[in-house]
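Please check this record.
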Amino acid sequence: GVDPPGFQRGRHCHPAPLVLGTMAAPIKLNEVLKVPSLGIRQEAITFASCTMQSEKYITVREQAGEQVMIHIIDLQNPAKTEKRPITADAAIMNPIAKILALRAGQALQIFNIELKTKMKAYSMPEAVTYWSWLNERTLALVTASSVYHWSVEGSADPVKVFDRLPAMASSQIINYRNDNNGKWMVLIGISQATDGSGRIVGSMQLFSSEKGQSQSIEGHAAGFANFTCQGASEPSTLFAFANKGAAGAKLHVIEVVKGTAAAPSFQKRAVDITMPPDAAADFPVAMQVSDKYGVIFMVTKYGYVYIFDVETATPIFFNRISPETIFTTCVNSMTGGILGINRLGQVLHVQVDDTTVTNYLQGKLNNVDLAMKIAARAKLPGAEQLYSANFDQLLRSGQYNEAAEMAAKSPNGVLRTPNTINKFKSLTAAPGAQSPLLIYFSKILEDSKLNAIETIELARPVLQQGKQALLKKWLEENKLECSEDLGDLVKQVDAQMALSIYLRANVPAKVIHCFVETQQYDKILLYANKVGYSPEWTQILQNMVVLNPEGAVQLAQMLVNQEGSKIDLEAVADLFLQRNMIQQTTSFLLDALKGNKPEEAQLQTKLLEINLRAAPQVADAILSNGMLSHYDRAHVGSLCEHLAQ
């Protein structure tokens, strides 16, 4: 129930304003809420009693004498704060849903507040010393000896994931987290140094669920990042951690899961963290990674925030944001910033300032490359212009390979635009050299796939050169984006390849047209049913009957035998009659009219009339077996008399 060492109230209580001479800071800081303003006593706002798992809720356990109150604060609407008398040692809200976990001694319960139902209950064999939600589905439970995961779904009890290393035995746990894929976890604890210096030592246990192995690391704060490295098409999982040792503070960033096997490996980073002279005893207490901007937010005991680039670990900015220790933080998924609560009950929000960050990086840090990368990652206004200036300079100097590399690998594809394609198309290749446009596309194809526009622009010259095999290879490797336009382009030279493109691009009308043209009639109805497509069957049969009359009849019969198919029976019968296909028309109509429905009287009459004129013995057989009873008897009788004369 007590705060960990170093989380008690600090002596540094002077807030520092965010000013940088004449230059605006690259972050925005604002106070979202003062928790005491909701009638909650400041004594309850501690690491042990106040939790925040996401930007949605804060949970506070407040005790006055024997009375315990659980406050659930809705950060989007603090006026809706709920106050419940619940006897529990700890309470923690799910990061997404209105689900509350409660702990009393070794007894655990999970409640759905909206449905007012108890979802799960369990009694742990040993005391839980730390807990947190890993995601909306999983509650993590840390005991003195082990770490457990408890799913809110199903009926399973908590499952042990790993045992704590002996090196963590004396540490008080302050954090536990995992990567997005649940393959890596890190347990973080702090303790007093044993050398009498009073220094706070950070200890971490990094665990791989796939390998079932743990590694002991010195560190105070850590986080995982999803980051798409240059030359990769899939994001890597990066692990960032900060440590304050006797020799100083360092930030480390390493790759624990590679995104794209063929891409270059991430270059691990280690940089010194410079602490201000008046905060020499300061140390990291929290770390959050903003995947939106690709930056690391590190918060210290004395209320400073440090920001680093996740790819290079370049220090971007630091400043004091709180007069008191910030004891809990989380990412704000809506802004890409972070939220933190300090001992005064201030809920603070820090985020990258979209309007100032690129100017700050270019001006204050003189780092144009980083300015371009962050602008592109976060899709900031002006990101394309930042890249374009460098890109255009490379083109002007004839460095087409370098320009192609830059455009192809630009973060978030900021330069992969029709404008860039047109610039490459306007260039003339040196005699015997590859076209600049093809150089550009080949750079993209090294480790990514082309978008729809790029695919069309590449397909045109490739088809003109008769290199359909190359296009087929890229399609098989899933390097091209299939579209109706691409199918139309390819169809001029290869109907079968066009069919595969239309199938992938989900263009049913043209898929069926290709089936007709390539005489794959047996696949037409199967495909239409599979994708839930109802084409104009009469038109399709009209095209088919020219190429393959028997195939058209077979399809028509399959259609009438399929429940719920909408087909104009009379129009289809006329199609066959126009080609004097009496036997096929009869066979089709006998199938179509076997239900003997009153509304089909006209078609019954037509069937009999056709056969009375062309095959009287067939008409006689139809009349004899009594399968039709709604035809125009007077008209049929008249025809019979006429034929008998």
About this structure: The mean pLDDT is 89. The CA atoms of residues 515 and 521 lie 6 Å apart.
